[in-house]
Write a sequence for this structure.
DNA sequence: TGGCTTCCGGTCATTTCCTGGCCGCAATCG
DNA sequence: CGATTGCGGCCAGGAAATGACCGGAAGCCA
């Protein structure tokens, strides 16, 4: 019953946009009798989406949060907002959520009407490259293309610039996209070489889906992340930063927020700990709080602080 | 037909997770004959969701992007990722999208099963407070609550600390949430005062929905943004930053990305322009690039640079 | 080229269930 | 107390969904 299904979706959509709807109005909009509307509401409830009803003079229906996420019916604006949000999250704005975001993004992008997709691509430049991002700027479109390949089990072609600089053309079955350190890696079965390979996404160019599907192979060892770690020579150097600061912990927390932990060490002093790839970041924090501090570790941070401080003072010196 | 509708949703869900599905498998999962499956696919097409079918030995069905966004059927992970992404976007990670993101977020949050909502709340602290955020930390939960009030046309109560510091309790009909400058404002009809009022969200505390609905009133002048602008005395002071830097434009672009514009002024020099609320940000850029520079404007930036530079050097001096 | 797989859509008999109308009932508000 | 609004049982007519069967077409492979 195409009619019924469509009507149910419209009903869901209505219930999702406004919070309350009087039954009469819903029945009106859906062009059914109020008896049928009641039955539709029942059907939604049977599907597990709790529709709350209140009686009385200002009664109405309301969709509540239930055990499962109902199908999200989005208008253009919302769809774009979601895509944009996922893209910034995928770009590393919320650490730990890069992979999940990319997967969700691939799904959304794939379903997004072309006109909306264009709107999002037009904002391409806005995907601020990680803000002092450790790595090179990453093309969000490429990332989603690859994610779509993994999701859809579809073969891909791309050009790859190896570490040594030579460029090769590849034809692979993409399996997993993994974010390690600050970099994205694709784990794939190389069709020409007949073996598993890992590729750094920032070294791939023009990834395209060929449209040919494949049956996923068993991943050696079962876990792509451990497999990747074992393959990747260049382990990201991370710095464990620890600095004593003579300022109340409160003030510091307001500045660094999530990006570090602040322990109170005294009434007006605290220790800041961060784990970063790039020392610029703690340097900036220190430059901002304008309070006396002592670097505990790592030693390189002292150098970085000195360089930044000198660079700043040199800039304002009359030249 | 609860059965049919539910099946259509399941079909949509299946088509959204993997990219290709052989017809037989779909029919199997949905426990219908393959003829019925074909009819279901047709129904989806009639609803405007283009389902692509390919024949031949590895044929199958595939949901394509169409004219309208299909109902998104999300699993837990995806729903959380979307909520997280929207929250960071609402917090200002993508300028210009704050309001849209908040609206979409309100919708998602409202439908999110409690267990997922808890997961997101647990990440509350991660909404890094704007990264040196110009304003005070904003409670994302409060923001969503207010947005839900606007969306659902539901009255709200909250405590409000006026500029002068006195705290009052308010009872309002929330109409619009607007992000102006770096601040959020609620435009609402104050029930006790019987007039329109604007409230700064960061001055509201414990906003709660009362559950009572209201009919939206006509907004004076029609446009909430112009209305708000006319009411708000405190225009956010923005700094127009301009700095000459002796480094290739390329290098700078990689650092500042979207957050500023870089003009080439010579082979190895360029001008950086930014428009910011908070001078810490350009200071950090300057400290990072480690290249000679000259501040053109604003004058306050010179002071800020000096303060930061001195603070940094003082910190590493043996004390 | 032939064979295999897979999707396509027409037809038909059967069964399901959707719909609207009618009713008495219950909850809520003023 | 009365008005409003949702709730759900019952009924009858009719629409539609389903499964089975079919010949056909398109793509892939040897």
């Amino acid at each position: 019953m195409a009619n019924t299904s469509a009507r149910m979706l419209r009903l869901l959509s209505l219930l999702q946009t406004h919070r309350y709807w009087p039954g009469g109005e819903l029945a009106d909009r859906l062009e059914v009798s109020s008896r049928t509307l009641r039955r539709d509401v029942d059907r939604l409830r049977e599907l597990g989406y709790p529709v709350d009803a209140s009686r009385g003079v200002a009664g109405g229906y309301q969709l509540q949060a239930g055990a499962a996420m109902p199908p999200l019916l989005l208008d253009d604006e919302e769809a774009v907002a979601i895509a944009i949000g996922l893209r910034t999250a995928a770009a590393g704005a919320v650490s730990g959520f890069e992979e999940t975001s990319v997967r969700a993004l691939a799904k959304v992008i794939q379903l997004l009407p072309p006109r909306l997709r264009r709107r999002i691509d037009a904002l391409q430049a806005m995907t601020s490259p990680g803000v002092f991002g450790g790595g090179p700027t990453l093309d969000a479109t490429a990332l989603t293309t690859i994610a779509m390949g993994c999701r859809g089990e579809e073969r891909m072609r791309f050009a790859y610039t190896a570490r040594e600089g030579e460029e090769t053309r590849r034809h692979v079955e993409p399996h997993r996209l993994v974010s390690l350190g600050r970099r994205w890696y694709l784990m794939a079965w190389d069709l020409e070489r007949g073996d598993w390979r890992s590729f750094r996404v920032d070294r791939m160019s023009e990834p395209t889906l060929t449209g040919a599907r494949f049956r996923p192979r068993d991943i050696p060892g079962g876990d792509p992340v451990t497999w990747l770690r074992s393959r990747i020579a260049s382990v990201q150097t991370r710095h464990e930063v620890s600095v004593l600061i003579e300022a109340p912990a409160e003030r510091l927390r307001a500045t660094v927020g999530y990006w570090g932990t602040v322990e109170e060490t005294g009434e007006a002093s605290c220790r800041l700990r961060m784990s970063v790839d790039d020392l610029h970041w703690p340097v900036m924090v220190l430059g901002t709080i304008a309070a006396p501090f002592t670097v505990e570790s790592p030693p390189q941070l002292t150098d970085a602080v000195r360089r930044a401080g000198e660079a700043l003072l040199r800039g304002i010196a009359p030249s």
Remarks:
- Chain A is about 40% helix and 25% strand.
